[in-house]
Amino acid sequence: MKPRHKKLAIIASGVTALGVASILVLNAFQSNLVFFFSPSQVAAKEAPIGKSFRIGGLVEEGSVRRQSDGVTVNFVVTDTAKVIPVVYTGILPDLFKEGKGVVAQGKLANDGVFRADEVLAKHDENYMPPEAASALEQADKARKTVLMQ
Question: 0.70 cut: is pTM over it?
């Protein structure tokens, strides 16, 4: 093979390897991408059923129920406009409380119950996850708009 052909073959194989690596990285990124939805968006059926996403808002007062197995917890997440029931099996964070901010990651079942794989709670008195704070603000604006009409 001529030196010119060797250079072209090396360049072509390098471009091919770079293309394959890019496809693999983008595919891995796509499979690990998790979207956030508020309870109002979930109630409006904007969230995917059977695919993993995050839901956030406040834990509704009086909604936390522990099952007899000691590790399964049922609670309701609200954005003050809509509520979504959540079931979580595992140990909850120490700061998980009724009336406080929470973000849960999991899947929405066909029965409308969110089955959480992970629950994140706020870490101090002034913190609320940005997604949850934004969802609460949007729900409050929507509620005020409806009241004004």
Answer: no
